[in-house]
Amino acid sequence: MEILITHVKIYPFDSGEPTAQVKAYAEITLGDCLIIRGFKVVQDKKGGVFVGFPSQKGKDGNYRDLVIPVTLEARNKIRDEILDAFRKFY
Description:
The model has no long low-confidence stretch (mean pLDDT about 95). About 10% of the residues are buried. The chain is an alpha+beta fold. The strands form 2 sheets. The protein has a 4-stranded antiparallel sheet, with helices on one face. The protein is globular. It has one helix at about 70-90, and strands at about 5-10, 20-30, 35-45, 50, 55, 65. Strand 2 (about 20-30) and strand 3 (about 35-45) form a beta hairpin. It has one domain (about 5-90): Arylsulfatase, C-terminal domain (2-Layer Sandwich).
């Protein structure tokens, strides 16, 4: 099964802090029928960026993923599409 991402929207985020890790938020549209919000583009300590999937903090203080791709292929496709859109912004 192939995942069909029809749109990616990037929301640049500037907290004003030079060491801030979150660089942008993102949302994706799947097949023009489902929007998933809450992705984060985060800069690591070495200067690279990665995509954080939507999550929510539980009562125990731990974060739980809200969006879980079933296959590695799906996870990679979502990640790559978001990072491509992010890089076009900068």
